[in-house]
Amino acid sequence: MSIYREELLLRSKDVDMFRRLRTSELFKLLQEASIRHTEELGMGRDKTLDKGILWVLLLQTAEIARMPEYDERIVLKSWPGRTMHLLFPRYYRMETAAGEHLLSASALWGLVDQNTRKMAFPERYGVEIEGVMTGEEIALPSAPKRLECTESRTFTVPYSYVDLNGHMNNTRYFDLAEDCIPAAAEGKMLRRIQTEYVSEARFGESFTVSWGEESGEYFLQGEGEKPFFRMRFKY
């Protein structure tokens, strides 16, 4: 059974003004753990990036008991689920060094041809990852349920938000979302997140971000000539 494990000490760069792990940084940690473990399993860039295919996130969810805080030592675990044709499930668990459960998460990854930007068949590139089940998995993510949107703004993807895949990095959507909704700046504790990445947003591309709230839950979406993302936050 292959389970990735990493121990981390949260630094000032990792936390927000309430000294809790920043939401975008949380998902950056999950993303990097996924990449490192995939490399350990022999499915690194020589199988993907160097052959013109990219790992992309399609859906994510997280259930949060407590966000870790500044100067706290944490343990992050990650493991792959059983591949579902074009989809690669992955699970995560974060706890304190003393074993206190902090959060659980899951994601669905896929492969995309960097030229056509269409889904790639993993077997054509020899990409194969054996899944494991630990009993600590949460449900795989699904598309966030919509709420009525009452606010909106226009957003243009800046250079600093673009990653090596040539599009806005998934973690930056959390920064964008928390700049829109008031709950984060008010210091409310985030409890659950659902995210769907519908299509990529490239450097310089503009779209409308709209959002709404109901009973402490927020729904956000980004749309232009096409839909870009949908997110739901529960506080």
Keywords:
235 residues, 2 helices, mainly beta, globular, ten-stranded antiparallel β-sheet, Thiol Ester Dehydrase, Chain A
Describe the protein's architecture and organization.
The chain folds into two domains: 122 residues, Hotdog Thioesterase (Thiol Ester Dehydrase, Chain A, Roll), CATH 3.10.129; 84 residues, Thiol Ester Dehydrase, Chain A. The protein is 11% helix and 36% strand. The chain is built from two helices and ten strands; from the N terminus they run βαβββββαββββ. A ten-stranded antiparallel beta sheet has the order 1-3-4-5-2-7-10-9-8-6, covered by helices on one side. It starts with a strand and ends with a strand. The relative contact order is 0.17. The mean pLDDT is 96.
Question: What is shown here, in short?
Answer:
The protein contains 2 helices and 10 strands. By secondary structure, the protein is mainly beta.
Layout of helices and strands:
Blueprint: E1 4-9, H1 23-40, E2 53-64, E3 73-80, E4 88-96, E5 101-113, E6 151-156, H2 172-180, E7 192-197, E8 206-214, E9 217-223, E10 227-234
Antiparallel strand pairs: 1-3, 2-5, 2-7, 3-4, 4-5, 6-8, 7-10, 8-9, 9-10
**Distance linking N and C termini:** 35 Å
Sequence of strands across the biggest β-sheet: 1-3-4-5-2-7-10-9-8-6
What profile does the largest beta sheet have?
A: 10 strands, antiparallel
In CATH terms, the superfamily of the largest domain is Hotdog Thioesterase
Low-confidence stretches: none
Number of domains: 2
Number of strands: 10
CATH class designation of the largest domain: Alpha Beta
